[in-house]
Amino acid sequence: MRNFNKINDWILEVINDGSWERFNDLHIDIIDTEFKNRNNWISGGISCYNSAFQTLNKLGVPYLVELCFHLKSKNKQGNYLIKDVKELKTSLDKFTPPSLYLFKKDWEGYHVENRILMENFIENNYGNLYYYQAYNKDDNEIRRSVTLV
Known about the structure:
The chain is α+β, with helices and mostly antiparallel strands.
């Protein structure tokens, strides 16, 4: 069984110091060196998310965890919705491993309205998968992500 103590420590730290509001995230390659390998990013990310979800339930705190898969940017507008896990794997950013974020459940800065719910995408008993893309005018690219919330 994998040791997820870093997740527990991170959760307590970001709750206690309020850094969740500044998007203090935890990349999965920090949690376990096995997750430095890009081939382990999807399964490792989901394992880390599940561990964080269970920890929050045990603590009984009013926070939610989000797992963010950072995807390759695109140069032009279009519908880049991810259709399956294979496409997700090939769309992952080459440099940025998935990361966990923590948010207070009633925080007004947290929104899922502009995201597309990806139904029946993966087996997961803990949350929903969403696709998001936004235009970044600074570099004229479409920033994309898939999040598990």
